[in-house]
Specification:
It is a single chain. The chain has eight helices and 17 strands. The chain has two domains: 80-181, no CATH class; 185-339, no CATH class. The strands form four sheets. The chain has a five-stranded parallel beta sheet with strand order 3-6-9-12-15, with no helix packed on it. It has 350 residues and is an alpha/beta fold.
Length: 350
């Protein structure tokens, strides 16, 4: 209710004002002070957060069910058999290639073995498999094996000019990728998967703590830029990525070898450092938002915010079919934060 006006005498005249009698206490700045502000904020935001968490859990559950229902593409006896003479190349995807006749050019198997019983005038290569040269067979070119081994029978012949290159390891993983390419986009739920996710949370939490302790002002300013001008930072990062990619390719193509290599290494270091810095900033900003939603003010801390941010993004990057787009978004935003680190103009809300 309004009371009668009172006069206040100052140095330059008389000022009249009305006093307001409120049933709620006023803070020193003159604003109304709610008895439980955090409860009011949490009451409005918590349902949205719960819905988002349920959607994430449903997506993860759907991915695991889909993964369990995918049938293995390789079956016993599923191989490509080459009989007679073939003038071109032979390519096998997700299955073995057995050469019984003669191939004038090369043979490549991705996710399977190359079994040579006849003649191959060109190269024999296997990715996620082995090259098996049986007795009486012949390979005129090189042998390339990635994720397998090269086995040569006693009476198998090779060209004297042929060379052999082998990279062992990850044979089963490469086979799985070749036979089910969608496995790259869908996580496989297992104890190993959970362990790697927890290790990722721990790694990014430690990195975030270290970088925040070394340069707290830079992280805070970058988080403020990300909050106020997300669209502008993302646009600058996207332009930087678009310029950096063709620029590095052009430098490697047209500049002298040493100078082109220097440009490529510099661009790679910029990308790695900006991603490291950007991930920490994004973790801090996300963790602060989660704290405002979930925790009362007296229980908030910067350490808890960094842990919440690292865990939140570890879960997001485990979503099927979505994580590649999230990685691209993180790279673009991180590059934008790095390129605007010394931007001294007045940042306003975009």
């Amino acid at each position: 209710m309004l009371s009668s006006p009172r006069r206040h005498r100052g140095h330059r005249g008389v000022t009249e004002f009305f006093s307001v009698q409120s049933q709620r206490p006023l803070c020193p700045c003159g604003e109304l002070k709610l008895p439980h502000p955090q409860a009011a904020i949490t009451r409005h935001v918590a349902p949205s957060f719960v819905k988002a968490a349920l959607i994430l859990l449903l997506l993860l559950l759907a991915s695991f069910i889909a993964k369990a229902q995918v049938a293995d593409a390789s079956r016993a006896g599923d191989e490509l058999v080459v009989d007679g003479n073939l003038a071109g190349d032979v390519f096998g995807l997700g299955r073995a290639v057995r050469v019984r006749g003669e191939v004038k050019k090369g043979v490549l198997a991705f996710g399977g073995d190359v079994i040579v019983e006849g003649h191959i005038e060109g190269d024999a290569a296997a990715i996620g498999g082995s090259v098996i040269q049986l007795e009486g067979s012949y390979i005129g070119g090189d042998v390339w094996v990635i994720g397998g081994e090269y086995r040569r029978g006693a009476g198998a012949a090779r060209s004297p000019a042929g060379q052999t290159m082998m990279v062992a390891g990850y044979e089963q993983e490469l086979r799985e990728i070749s036979r089910n390419p969608a496995s790259l986009l869908t996580p496989e739920f297992s104890l190993s998967f959970v362990g790697w996710r927890l290790l990722a949370v721990l790694f990014w939490f430690v990195v975030s703590i270290a970088l925040t302790a070394v340069s707290p002002g830079a992280v805070s300013r970058a988080a403020a830029r990300l909050h106020l001008t997300l669209a502008r930072v993302s646009l600058i990062g996207l332009l930087g990525a678009v310029v950096m990619g063709p620029g590095v390719v052009a430098a490697l193509e047209y500049l002298p070898t040493a100078l082109g290599a220097l440009v490529g290494v510099t661009a790679l270091l910029l990308l790695l450092l900006s991603y490291l810095f950007g991930r920490v900033v994004i973790h801090a900003a996300t963790g602060r938002w989660l704290q405002r939603v979930l925790l009362p003010e007296e229980k908030r801390s910067e350490v808890v915010a960094l842990l919440l941010g690292a865990a939140f993004w570890a879960v997001l990057l485990s979503l099927p079919y979505v994580w590649p787009f999230l990685v691209v978004a993180l790279v673009v935003a991180s590059l934008g934060l790095a390129l605007t680190a010394r931007y001294r103009l007045n940042w306003r809300r975009a």
